[in-house]
Write a structure and sequence with these properties.
This is Glucosyltransferase. The chain has 364 residues and is of the alpha/beta class. It contains 16 helices and eleven strands. It starts with 16 loop residues before the first strand and ends with a helix. It binds 2-acetamido-2-deoxy-beta-D-glucopyranose. 2-acetamido-2-deoxy-beta-D-glucopyranose (NAG) binds at residues 32, 35-36, 146, 205, 233-237, 336, 354, 357-358.
Amino acid sequence: MTQVENHEFSKLKQDEVAIVMVPFPSQGHLNQLLQLSCLISSYHLPIYYVGLATHNHQARIRAKALNPSNIAKIHFHDLPNPELIASSNLEKVRDVSMLLRDPIASFIRDISSKVRRVVVVHDPMMSYNVQDVSSLPNAESYIFNCISVFSCYIMMCLFLKISGQHEEELLKKLYSFEGVTTDEAMDLSDSQHPYMDIRSGDIHNTSKVIESKYIDLMEQAEISLNKKQWAIGPILPTKLDYISNRENICLDWLNKQPPRSVLYVSFGTINSFSDRQIKELAMGLEQSKQRFILVLRDADRRDIFKGEARKVELPEGFEERVKEVGLVVREWAPQPEILAHLSTGGFMSHCDWNSCLESIIMGV
Ligand SMILES: *[C@@H]1O[C@H](CO)[C@@H](O)[C@H](O)[C@H]1NC(C)=O
């Protein structure tokens, strides 16, 4: 195969290590790999963030908590839209994460010929697409996990059917996974498993202080497979001085509230409540007489730049009645900054790993 001369690589040096990030195209995942990119880039390593143009664009415009001068150092490599995705099936996540193998392989091959070593850091759900790393002598890959080591470990026990006495007792105490994920998500995850073997190890956004027991268990389980485990978290979005200088309606509003008085209510971007559930929630907030910020974003569509967003209905006159004590936000809310704000006193959440960690770290 001939090497394509690519101006993107013009600044690379032969003795360098280049990092290639391969995110999974959903907001939480895009954002976290971008954040990790900024962190790694502060060690003066060249970083390539690889995805479809629309997802790279989404990652950049939503990265409001990251310092723009850090983002500017990252090379965004837009993959050409595979025909199938462009024409019909963008709805199906599974297609996106199974069709990028060739363009990703050729990008990694090109870059590997320019530098000493290539390190690919990817989402577990992109394992299929990065499998060709194994055919390159100077490349290796790591999985970056956005979830807790506890969850990783439990899933490993369930899916790979690892069972010692300890695991069995642990599993008995847990809720079943049934109904927690969709069939589509399970399919996607199953289809990635065979390709996870090529990785050299896992990077986790956690620390021994919080999860030492499960980090140790994970290490023991993976050591025979020669996979290294790295707990490098918690990786915070940005420096606090940058946070405090930013203008945002939530932060402006919080500035006017008494210390520790506001309940922050947000259920992430992936959960859609029914209108009835939202009305109940709103009525509860109103009757509680607490100060609150209520984030009402509907779940993301596959392409956030296309199609109509659903307008979530609140009880009639709600916003007017609560305007002294409550703020309803329909946009992207800067969660870490809100939690770090002195006026925030509580957090009502769907308790994903990020929200839990951010809440612990900010002492809310
Ligand atoms: C790591 O976890 C923290 C706390 O939940 C979160 O704010 C941050 O976005 C995560 N960073 C990455 C790179 O996953």
